[in-house]
Amino acid sequence: MKALTIGGATNDFIAIIEDDLIERMTMHNATSSFLLFEEGRKVDATSIEAFVGGGATNAAVAMSRLGFDAAAIVKIGNDHAGDKIVETFHNEGVDDKFVIRSDKDATGRAVMVSSHVKNPTIFVCRGANTRLREDEITPEHFKSMDLIYITGLSGDSSAAFPHIVSLAKQSGAKIAANPGIRQLSSRSQDFYKSLELIDILSLNEAETAQLVPLIIKDHKKAKLVEVSPKSKGGDEEVTMPELVRNGLSAGGFNMSLGDFFATILHLGIETFVLTNGKEGAYIGNKDGVYFCNSNKVDVKGTAGAGDAFFSTFTSLLTDGASIEDATHAATINSSNVVACIDTQSGLLKRNELKGRLKAFSTKNCRNYKFV
């Protein structure tokens, strides 16, 4: 299978700080937490390391390690940071023939500060990632591709999203999209108009909620009813998944999870993937919604977990795997990524993933149907 990823590429610099050197403050009336740095103080780091990251790069590396023929369209600078991205593609077997180099903009860079719960604060200078233009994407890029995988397009690059989706649709490839929350908020109408052209869409809980006010006018009533026997956790029933229980809210609008899935699928999406961090993921199609809880691991860093999950799920599903098998594999791969500090070291090769699938527990997974 041939796959093309489109989106961001960065050099990531990750600093690990001991908990007692940075104060953490959690709000009692909100879900936000903050890391507090003392002004003017030099803070000792346990380690500071450099890696290659970015949504399109992470996805391409994941697909290549799974045995697929992967290429990537990313825009980078004519600089050392750009050389590191091309070097990573060479080392990982990712085709770099579509990499675009800019003389005007630097390669994107990110600085991550990780402490306490290992959910890093990320400082981003997106650089050339914001400068992808429509005229740089042509039908030639999509020839013979089986999967077009579009990650978050930042800054001015987001204006090219409708053009990219349109060309991808004309190619006959399966189209998957994983836009970021800034793209959804700044160009929501462009995104909304492209929904009917997208086959597989993935958003996290916050990004999904961002769509609630937009799609409420197309509200399609539906409830989710569990169709699999209730599994047991010890002597007690497994708790109902959070979003099935609470639904989604944004901008004063509320939707049940069943209503949201029914509506987004009615608007043209074939498969919708909703990831909810450490709780797990919800996968919906015309047959209903499948919930798979996350693996419990010693978290070293959360960056790249979403990229690992969706790229694994999408590539395996496109290659013929069932919803359940693709979801289980994606859960394993993403949990292996968060067990590492960077976004790519934990990505598994196909044989490793197959071995871990044999031991994967589905006792807390649930099937729901629409009524």
Condensed summary:
30% of the residues lie in helices and 27% in strands. It is an alpha/beta fold. The radius of gyration is 20 Å and the shape is globular.
Model description:
The protein is α/β, with parallel strands linked by helices and 371 residues long. It has a single domain, classed as Ribokinase (UDP-N-acetylmuramoyl-L-alanine:D-glutamate ligase, 3-Layer(aba) Sandwich), CATH 3.40.1190. The chain is built from 11 helices and 22 strands. The protein has a 10-stranded mixed sheet with strand order 6-1-11-12-13-19-20-21-22-14, with helices on both faces. A 4-stranded mixed sheet has the order 5-2-9-10. A two-stranded antiparallel sheet has the order 3-4. α3 (161-171) packs parallel to α5 (188-194), α9 packs antiparallel against α10 and α10 packs across α11 (350-357).
Count of individual beta strands:
22
Largest sheet: 10 strands, mixed
Query: Low-confidence parts, pLDDT < 50 over ≥5 residues?
Result: 231-236
- Secondary structure class reads alpha/beta
Average pLDDT score:
92
Strand order of the largest sheet: 6-1-11-12-13-19-20-21-22-14
Radius of gyration: 20 Å
What's the CATH superfamily, by name? Ribokinase
Proportion of residues in extended strands: 25-35%
Q: Into which percent range does the helicity of residues fall?
A: 25-40%
